[in-house]
Amino acid sequence: MNTEQPPFDGDRDCDRDRDFDADLESELAATDDVLHRSLAQLLAPPADLESRTQDHVANSLMSRSLLGTGADLLTVGWQTLRLMWSEPEPDADETEVTR
Amino acid sequence: MLRNRRATPRTNASEEQFQALIADHAEVIYRVAYSVVRDEHLAEDIVQETIIKAWQALPSWRGDGSLRGWVLSIAHNTAVSYLRRMRDTSTEPARLPERASSADVERETDARADLDRLRLALADLDELSRSIVVMRDLDGLPYQQIAEALDVPLATVKTRLLRARRELQRVVEAGVHT
Q1: CA angle in degrees (0–180, nearest 5) for B69-B73-B77
Q2: Largest CA distance in chain B
Q3: Which stretches of chain B sit within 8 Å of chain A by CB?
Q4: pLDDT digit string (tens) for B103-136?
Q5: pLDDT of residue B2
């Protein structure tokens, strides 16, 4: 059995790659109107999608914003209370004196 | 620590920007979302979620690609997460995205049956190929933008598109000739 490989020919391989790319591009460029129409029909969004999306998104953003503001106020209140209740730290001079 | 949030638009300029975001992208997002989850109601939920995410992230968008590509990458990621969540949590077949059976196809003989056939063929493609077909053949996005939106190499976009088109064309032509 002859297992000898054909000699490497870089130019020929490059040509073959170029041909393949050209074939791919030309096939990709060919569009099919029937397929396009059928896909458009199949994936058609509801007629009132835009208005419904606008209402839902505006309401959702509003309620998220209100919830977020409430959470922020609670956080600020909690941090204020913690500051008020926490023991004041001894300052550096006092520490020096006690030593 | 207070969070930096973007709420509903309050000025005229941001109101216009907000409306433009929806007007320009809602339908495209719907098609991409539907191609992934294959459920109309879920697709609408994904449109809303995507618009909210895009609106909130818009100030940090660097603007180095197309806005549509950026929005569609959010839409595709959101749709894929929805699908994964459903597959993980749902054990009832009725709650999984609709998948037409071959019996459904045989039952109908009119134009509706052609669409059903196409729906089946679309469902048989993988999620990535479906999104590529929709982005390219319905929304006319350039290959490079599709590759960026879906985070895949350019060559993958082209070969998947070609393979998917051949598959769908075969189904459409079979419908025309019967």
Answers
A1: 170
A2: 66
A3: 1-3, 5-8, 19, 22-23, 26-27, 30-31, 34-35, 40, 43-44, 47-48, 51-52, 55, 114-115, 118-119, 122, 133-134, 137-138, 158-159, 161-162, 165, 168-169, 172-173, 176
A4: 544 554 556 777 888 888 988 999 999 999 999 9
A5: 47
Q: Which residue of B has its CA nearest to A23?
A: B162
Q: Which residue is listed with tokens 């056939």?
A: B117
CB B138 within 8 A of CB B31: yes
What's the CA gap between B2 and A71, in Å, rounded?
9
| A62-71, A76-85, A88-97: least confident range | A88-97
Chain-centroid distance, C-alpha B73: 9
Task: Quote the pTM value.
Answer: 0.70
Q: Residue B146 in contact with residue B156, Cβ under 8 Å?
A: no
Count the Cβ atoms, other than its own, within 10 Å of residue B88.
Answer: 8
